Amino acid sequence: MGANSSLLSPDSSDGSNHPSKLKLGDIPESCVALVLSYLDPPEICKLARLNRAFRAASSADFIWDAKLPSNYHHLVDDYLIKNPSKLGKNEIYARLSRPVPFDSGNKEFWLDKRTGGLCLSISSKALAITGIDDRRYWNYIPTDESRFHTIAYLQQIWWLEVEGDMEFQFPAGTYSLLFKLRLGRFTKKPGRRVATHGGHESVHGWDIKPVQFQLTTPDGQQAISKRFLENTGNWEYHHVGDFVVDDPNTPTKIKFSLTQIDCTHTKGGLSIDSVLICPSDLVKSFRAIL
Question: Which residues form the signal peptide (predicted)?
Answer without folding.
Answer: none
